[in-house]
């Protein structure tokens, strides 16, 4: 057992040493980026053009299409499999002279940008994303202007592709111009777009949605909810709500629009059918409807069966008359219908004979 444990420990230690050595090697390597499908040329340090070298990738021979000339290595039409740590060794003394971490990728395309205010009137945020991956590190530069003035942009601490901007003034007729530039080692691309203040206002969905059956009402459901916690000033900027509901067995929704209310009673539910219920919110004056809230399920009140009492039909005694056995009943084996068994009759005859002989 001790030998097995020792062997396992040695294997684990060796793996840790290899990983540590690889990381130390990569830390000293310089990074070179290349575009997918292009030819990539790497130079082994600052060696002379007539120096003979040998190239390795991740510690093994370079097996992809390549051309070697002196200290130069050219990879033909690279793809993602060409990624790796390339090392070159001078043949005269077999010493490593250089390391290059090759990263294959693509330049960015124009990012998609959206802006939204779910904390109106405090401010808004803008989000962006790339529709096509670059496979290499890509950064984003963001600039927001309003009425020819640049606004302060605060990057989100959680969402790396999001920034927050405060409204410099409310009810402004000037649009907000947002420019987002994606940049990486292979190129850059920008998207510039404008947003009106009113078009950006979009609350988060209502919260704490609850649907309950109403006792003794077989067609009613009571629905309550709370305004979104992210909406900062519900008193001065009230919300209206849009409720939709449908029985689980149907696809068609029924809708109710409500102004400044956080409860509603559904009065036309199908008896005993389970319902799906959702809500959306919108500022009273501007903006668009929020996304739908998380769906909740509820079933209207169902009348419980009445308990059996002494006055019910179940307690009235039922008179019966003797009857012959049902057709399926069979007489017991060995017993004649309406008489005694043959063994019992024989015993009685024998007893009578004995008594007569004694007399």
Concise account of the structure shown:
One of its GO terms (biological process) is positive regulation of axon regeneration. The protein has 359 residues and is mainly beta. It is built from 3 helices and 23 strands.
How would you characterize the overall build of this protein?
Residues 37-88 form the Ig-like domain. This is Ciliary neurotrophic factor receptor. Residues 107-204, 205-305 form the Fibronectin type-III domain. Residues 303-332 are annotated as: Disordered. It is a single chain. The chain is mainly beta. The protein has three domains: 25-105, Immunoglobulin-like, CATH 2.60.40.10; 112-200, Immunoglobulins (Immunoglobulin-like), CATH 2.60.40; 207-298, Immunoglobulins (Immunoglobulin-like, Sandwich). Helices cover 13% and strands 37% of the residues. It has three helices and 23 strands. The chain has helices at residues 2-27, 197-200, 342-358; strands at residues 30-35, 40-43, 53-57, 60-61, 66-69, 72-75, 84-90, 95-105, 112-116, 123-129, 139-146, 149-150, 154-155, 162-166, 176-184, 187-195, 207-213, 221-226, 239-247, 254-259, 263-266, 275-283, 296-298. The protein is elongated. The model is unreliable at 8-25 and 311-345 (pLDDT under 50).
């Amino acid at each position: 057992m001790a030998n097995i444990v020792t062997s396992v420990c040695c294997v684990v230690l060796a793996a840790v040493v290899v990983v540590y050595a690889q990381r130390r090697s990569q830390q000293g390597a310089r990074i070179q980026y290349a575009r997918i499908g292009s030819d990539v040329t790497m130079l082994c340090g600052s060696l002379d053009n007539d120096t003979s070298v040998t190239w390795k990738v991740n510690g093994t021979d370079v097996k992809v299409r390549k051309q070697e000339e002196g200290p130069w290595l050219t990879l033909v039409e690279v793809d993602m499999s060409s990624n790796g740590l390339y090392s070159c060794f001078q043949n005269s003394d077999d010493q490593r002279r250089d390391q290059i971490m090759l990263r294959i990728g693509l330049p960015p395309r124009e990012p998609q940008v959206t802006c939204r205010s779910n904390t109106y009137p405090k401010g808004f945020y803008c989000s962006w994303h790339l529709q096509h991956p670059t496979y290499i590190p890509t950064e984003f530069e963001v600039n927001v202007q309003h009425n020819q003035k640049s606004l302060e942009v605060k990057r989100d601490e959680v969402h790396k592709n999001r920034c927050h901007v405060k409204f410099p003034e409310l009810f402004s007729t000037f649009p907000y111009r947002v420019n987002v530039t994606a940049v990486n080692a292979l190129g850059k691309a920008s998207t510039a777009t404008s947003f009106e203040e009113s078009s950006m206002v979009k609350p988060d969905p209502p919260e704490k949605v609850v649907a309950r059956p109403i006792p003794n009402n077989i067609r009613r459901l009571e629905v309550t909810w709370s305004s979104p916690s992210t909406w900062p000033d519900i008193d001065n900027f009230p919300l209206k709500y849009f409720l939709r509901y449908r029985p689980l067995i149907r696809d068609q929704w029924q809708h109710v629009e409500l102004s400044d209310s956080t409860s509603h009673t559904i009065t036309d539910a199908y008896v005993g059918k389970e319902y799906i219920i959702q809500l959306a919110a919108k500022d009273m004056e501007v903006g668009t409807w929020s996304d739908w809230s998380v769906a909740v399920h509820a079933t209207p009140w169902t009348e419980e069966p009445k308990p059996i009492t002494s006055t019910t039909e179940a307690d009235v005694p039922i008179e019966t008359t003797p009857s012959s056995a049902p057709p399926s009943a069979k007489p017991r084996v060995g017993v004649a219908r309406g008489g005694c068994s043959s063994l019992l009759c024989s015993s009685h005859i024998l007893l009578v004979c004995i008594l007569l002989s004694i007399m």
